[in-house]
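Q: May I have one protein plus its fold?
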Amino acid sequence: MHDEPGLEARAGSITAWISSPTEKDIGKFLSCFTEDAVDEDVTTGRVLRGHTELAEEFSSWVGAVPDFVKKERSRLVSGDRASVEWAVSGTLRRAHGKLDFPQAMGRSFAYSGAAVLEFASDGRIRLVRTYWDLTRLLSQLGLLSPDAVGRTTA
């Protein structure tokens, strides 16, 4: 039985994508993406295109959450696609994009998510779509009342 062609390169890109924010290694992060990669955050609607936008977002996030940790829970790779389940944690220390609320600073968070990735022929990521738990993050940062989560109206 032969390994699927390019599987090792795709696996390396996934590993770099997961570990580089924890390691604060922007070079490693960018190396796993094609120059014209697209990063779509389905939860927030944010779409990043290319290395410049990816680098800006990476730097802003790891600056805002210096103790950020991202861990892989599972992965499934097939052909030029993969799905990855992950968990993150950290403490918000500075504003990041729309997360600019004084009451959230110094609060810790932990949430899970998943991503669907598509790869170029060289094994680098050309598209990533992420899905994650915004409600949990906002609750943990004190921006959404835990009482409001899960309520139904009668």
